[in-house]
Each structure stands twice: as structure tokens, then as C-alpha cells.
């Protein structure tokens, strides 16, 4: 049986690595928001904005992707609708359901956030070397893909 004493001594545990990196990423992503024309955003909105896409999504799918409860997701979407970033439209496949879409303002925000992500990746790559950074990202992607494949019954 493997125990915590079997973990490598030359690095912190994976949960700490991922948690701290995610926190750093969110700080760097959110920090310029107000100066870039989005002073009404809260850092918690990143959970929703990072999972919405531009093609419309049901609230239940957005909640699952964001790893939030339905009530919390609904509240955050309501807030983003009131701020003019999202709108609800009928689902053409099921008129009883609504899809959440980014508005023009929301698409501009998503585009600006994507550009900020590119800047973060470039900066982080510069810290450890671009090839090393890309290799680390590919390894994490391979791990996610393997975990996803393992979860399929």
C-alpha cells in the first residue's frame, strides 16, 4: 500500500501544485479586468466565464462544467445577465428550456480574457522555458484525457 511518505520529496503534492497554480492563474487573469473595461466583474465570475463558450449552454451543463451547484450557478448567471454579459434564449430543440449565451459585451470579455490567458502562458513559459511549459501542459492534458477515458463505463 502506498502512503504519503512514498511521495517525492523534491516537490509539493499534486493537489497543492494544482491549487496554488490555479490561484496564481486566477489572480493574473482577473487583475487587469477593471482597467480593461470590466470593473463590475468579481473574481468568482471566472468560474462561469471559463466554462460558458459562445454557442449557448443550458444552466445544468454550465453548473456541471463549473463544478458549482445549480442554485449558485443560477445566481451567478442572473448577475452576469444583469451586468449585460449574458442573455437567456429559448432552446430551439426544447422550447421549454433556456440557453445562456454571451452578449456582444460578453463575447468581447471572453475574447479579452483569451488574450490575457495567452499572455499568462507566454509569461509562465518564459519563467521555466517555453518548451518545458508546453510539455507540462501536454502532460496535464494527457492525464485529463486518461482520467476522462477511465471514467467512461
What is the compact description of this entry?
With about 150 residues, the chain is mainly alpha-helical. The chain has six helices and two strands; from the N terminus they run H-H-H-H-E-E-H-H. Helix content is about 60%, strand content about 10%.
Count every beta strand, where a strand is a DSSP E run of 2 or more residues: 2
Listing every helix as H and every strand as E from the N terminus to the C terminus, the arrangement reads HHHHEEHH
**Name of the level-1 CATH class:** Mainly Alpha
End-to-end distance? 26 Å
Helix content: 55-70%
CATH architecture: Orthogonal Bundle
Radius of gyration: 18 Å
Q: Main beta sheet: strand number and arrangement? A: 2 strands, antiparallel
Query: Could you name the ranges where pLDDT drops below 50 across 5 or more consecutive residues?
Result: none
What spatial order of strands do you see in the largest sheet? 1-2
Strand content: 5-15%
As for the CATH topology, it is Arc Repressor Mutant, subunit A
| Arithmetic mean pLDDT | 93
The total domain count is: 1
Number of continuous helical runs: 6
CATH superfamily: Winged helix-like DNA-binding domain superfamily/Winged helix DNA-binding domain
Shape: globular
Structural class: mainly alpha
Amino acid at each position: 500500500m502506498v502512503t504519503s511518505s512514498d511521495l517525492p520529496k523534491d516537490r509539493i503534492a499534486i493537489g497543492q501544485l494544482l491549487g496554488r497554480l490555479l490561484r496564481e492563474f486566477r489572480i493574473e487573469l482577473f487583475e487587469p479586468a477593471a482597467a480593461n473595461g470590466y470593473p463590475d466583474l468579481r473574481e468568482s465570475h471566472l468560474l462561469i466565464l471559463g466554462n460558458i463558450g459562445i454557442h449557448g449552454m443550458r444552466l445544468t451543463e454550465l453548473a456541471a462544467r463549473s463544478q458549482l451547484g445549480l442554485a449558485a450557478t443560477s445566481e451567478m448567471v442572473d448577475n452576469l445577465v444583469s451586468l449585460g454579459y449574458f442573455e437567456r434564449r429559448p432552446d430551439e430543440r426544447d422550447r421549454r428550456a433556456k440557453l445562456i449565451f454571451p452578449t456582444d459585451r460578453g463575447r468581447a470579455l471572453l475574447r479579452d480574457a483569451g488574450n490575457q490567458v495567452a499572455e499568462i502562458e507566454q509569461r509562465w513559459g518564459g519563467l521555466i522555458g517555453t518548451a518545458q511549459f508546453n510539455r507540462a501542459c501536454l502532460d496535464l492534458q494527457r492525464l485529463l484525457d486518461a482520467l476522462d477515458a477511465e471514467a467512461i463505463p
